[in-house]
UniProtKB/TrEMBL annotation:
Record protein name field: Lysosome membrane protein 2a isoform X1
A single MF term (Gene Ontology): scavenger receptor activity
Cellular localisation: Membrane
GO CC annotations on file: lysosome; membrane
Cross-referenced Pfam families: CD36
Classification via InterPro entries: CD36_fam, LimpII
Predominant cellular place of this UniProt entry's protein: membrane
Protein family per UniProt: Belongs to the CD36 family.
Lineage, broadest ranks: Eukaryota, Metazoa, Chordata, Craniata, Vertebrata
Residue ranges the record marks as coiled coil: none
Record bears the keyword Lipid biosynthesis: no
Length: 530
């Protein structure tokens, strides 16, 4: 066997093995299964897991951007006209949210934690000084007291109204941004506090929320089932709330929005429990996006989350009391806000019924600025970028006994909205890209094997064609040499005389030309006599 033949046979054997092994691995998805199994074991909330530390102390910076709606025509609105507002902001604060008192329960299958939040003002990301800039908006303590007295007698309401006017309390107030956020001593609440000490005399939208937590959480670690990774088991000892009017609405579903299970697909719904909204919401896949070179799936709340029960009957459970429902795009959360007529929505009533938007001048909802979304890396389930946007509103209506509301139109009045944003930091993004590159190479290793097999197959075909070409050339050379030998022998042929006469020519034939038929021997030997 020649060296060329050995090379062809060796190439063919290696090629066949690579193709068979590679195709078998691709079909069986051995490496993908191995990686997925590894991810399910590694991505858990256990002390030994690589994600535990980032869950305990999240590295991406979180920013809270506060926007206020400054009322420009309070007198006209109180006279029965349409309110006009102007958006002012953002006033940005850096939010810190470490997990504290972390304790593992039930053999590491659950973990208890508190999540206190603290806020630090960031002037370079803000439009002004919150301790100087003034905002004119609805006097929320006034509206809360008025709403509480709505079920009392007309005379008591009138008396309280006159007393509040004597204190200089009006429907609209002007305070600094800092006071609205972090609290000020309110004259009405101060008076109530003197009679009922459990009522705080200070009011602020973020009063007592700097350095405090939203409750005690117990999370699933994902040790038993990777799909439960990060899901809330209990909140303040509850597995189900009691505020709403249906069991489904009272369910505590999903995670707190900080982590999600690995291997996310586009067809699933993700659930988040939002303590500030007093309910769970779901998010659906929207689009594929890229953040700092990392491919991610974007999830966002679909329009049915705050849809009217008329269009989405499952939302009827959020009507309290049962049947007392608002329109699409708004949710009344009075049941978990100590009876205050508070309504939440997306900023500028995005995705809400047009009647709420048209009731106020100065609103312009749009998807880019007002949509809540979450960008997740699907393999690891890690949030790459998040924007949580929510608006705080209050219900204003006429209440007999309070002259300030005599001409008011029933309005869901916007107070402010917050844009809570977080994007993966550069260091974490670099680590994520490296991890994903390794996972991609490992999971595609069978494809590389098949590719090498195909390359060797092409080499084998080339060698076979080359070998065949060489053989044809050898055959042509042999034929040419044979033909050349034949023609050379023909030129050197000797002719032998057949006749028995002597070789000497006779006188009669000596001068005649020789004839072709006289010689038959084609050998260069001497002619012999018979």
């Amino acid at each position: 066997m020649t060296r060329r033949s050995c090379a062809i046979y060796a190439t063919g054997i290696v090629c066949a093995h690579l193709l068979i092994v590679g195709i078998a691995l691709v079909v069986a998805q051995v490496f993908q299964t191995m990686i997925h199994s590894r991810l399910k074991k590694e991505i858990t909330l256990t002390e030994k897991s690589q994600v535990f530390e980032s869950w305990k102390n999240p590295p991406p910076p979180v920013y809270m951007e506060y926007y206020f709606f400054n009322v420009t025509n309070p007198e006209e609105f109180q006279a029965g006209g349409k309110a006009s507002v102007k958006q002012i902001g953002p006033y940005t604060y850096r939010e810190y949210r470490p997990r504290e008192n972390v304790t593992f329960l039930e053999n590491g299958t659950k973990v208890y934690a508190l999540n206190p939040k603290s806020f630090v003002f960031v002037p370079e990301k803000s439009v002004g000084d919150p301790e100087v800039d003034l905002i004119r908006t609805v006097n929320i303590p006034f509206v809360v007291v008025m709403n509480e007295l709505n079920s009392y007698s007309f005379f008591l309401r009138s008396f309280v109204s006159m007393y509040m006017r004597s204190l200089g309390v009006e429907l609209f107030i002007t305070r600094t941004v800092h006071e609205f956020l972090w609290g000020f001593k309110d004259p009405i609440l101060t008076k109530i506090h003197s009679m009922k000490p459990d009522v705080d005399e200070y009011f602020g939208l973020m009063w007592k929320k700097n350095g405090t937590h939203e409750g005690e959480f117990v999370f699933h670690t994902g040790e038993e089932n990777y799909l439960d990774y990060g899901k809330i088991d209990t909140w303040n000892g509850l597995r189900q709330m009691s505020w709403w009017s249906s069991n489904q609405s009272n369910m505590i579903n999903g995670t707190d929005g900080a982590v999600f299970h690995p291997l996310i697909n586009r067809n699933e719904l993700l659930y988040i429990f939002a303590a500030d909204l007093c309910r769970s919401i779901h998010l659906a896949y929207v689009d594929d996006v890229e953040v700092k070179g990392i491919q991610a799936y974007r999830f966002a709340p679909p329009s049915d989350v705050l849809m009217s029960p008329t269009d989405n009957p499952t939302n009827a459970g959020f009507c309290v009391p049962a049947g007392d429902c608002l329109g699409t795009g708004v949710l009344k959360v009075s049941v978990c806000r100590q009876g205050a007529p508070i309504v939440v929505s997306f900023p500028h009533f995005y995705q809400a019924d047009p009647m709420y938007i048209n009731a106020i001048d100065g609103l312009s909802p749009n998807k880019e600025e007002h949509e809540t979304y979450l960008d997740l890396q699907p393999t690891t389930g890690v949030p790459i970028r998040a924007c949580k946007r929510a608006q705080l509103n209050i219900i204003l209506k006429r209440v007999q006994g309070f002259p300030a509301t005599k001409f008011l139109n029933h309005t869901i009045f916007p107070i402010m909205f917050v844009n809570e944003t977080a994007t993966i930091d550069d260091e974490s993004a670099t680590k994520m890209r490296t991890l994903l590159l390794i996972l991609t190479l490992v999971s595609n290793f069978p494809v590389l094997i098949v590719g090498m097999g195909i390359i060797l197959l092409l080499v084998l075909l080339f060698l076979l064609c080359r070998n065949r070409q060489k053989k044809n050339e050898v055959k042509r050379i042999d034929f040419t040499e044979a033909f050349h030998s034949f023609t050379t022998a023909k030129d050197d042929t000797a002719y032998t005389q057949v006749s028995g006469k002597p070789d000497e020519p006779s006188e009669t034939t000596a001068n005649q030309p020789s004839k072709n038929g006289s010689y038959i021997a084609m050998s260069p030997v001497e002619a012999q006599k018979c």
